[in-house]
Design brief:
The protein is built from three helices and twelve strands. The chain is about 30% helix and about 20% strand.
């Protein structure tokens, strides 16, 4: 990847982070309620009962409303735990147990199920800074999800969660960037890639 492309990724991430922080707690909570409803709709469409998700930090689209709903409706949710080798372990969400990772983001605490637990979910819901119409996902640069997805023999459908203005026509990408099968925003569930008639 050329330096201009690397710089473009950094600039997009910085812009997204700034806009998300400007949203404030009330705006983030309202967006989270919409995201929860959209995920519920996706689960209804796909009949999914076991999903992987993430604990949202203050600058990520809020997944807390969905995690609460899932616990109340007996939907199993696996949450990631970072590993030193760049892959992700997983644990079953209990709705309460978490800690602050050394890098500052929230991380689940619980019985470690190992990296292959992800092979037994119906859907994988992942964070992103932005998603393009062709399915290109821009993460935050640490590569946990790209490495995890790249190591899977059979991937479940991958859905990225972003705000509406973070679903964009195109994004820079590298060979290791794993595309997603759809995007969830506070107002829409969108299968990807988009066809020409959309």
């Amino acid at each position: 990847m050329t330096d201009p492309e690397v710089n473009e990724k950094r600039a997009i991430r910085a812009d997204v982070r700034q806009r998300r922080q400007a949203q404030g707690a009330i705006g983030a909570s309202q967006a989270g309620e919409g995201i929860s409803l959209q995920i519920q709709e996706l689960l209804t469409q796909t009949d999914a009962r076991r999903v992987a998700c993430y604990l949202s930090s203050e600058f990520e689209p809020n997944t807390r409303h969905f995690l609460k709903w899932a616990l109340e409706h007996e939907v199993d949710v696996l949450l990631p735990i970072t590993r030193d080798d760049g892959l992700l372990d997983w644990t079953l969400s209990d709705g309460v147990s978490e800690r602050t990772h050394q890098w500052g983001f929230p991380e689940a605490v619980g019985e470690i199920l190992g990296p292959i637990a992800i092979n037994r979910v119906d859907l994988l819901l992942v964070p992103a800074a932005a998603v393009a119409h062709d399915g290109t996902r821009l993460g935050w640069g640490r590569g946990f999800y790209d490495k995890t997805l790249g190591s899977m023999e059979q991937r479940p459908p991958i859905w990225a969660i972003v705000h509406d203005d973070e679903f964009v026509p195109s994004l820079p990408s590298e060979i290791h960037d794993m595309p997603v099968d759809g995007v969830i925003t506070p107002t829409r569930v969108i299968p990807l890639p988009l066809t020409e008639d959309h």
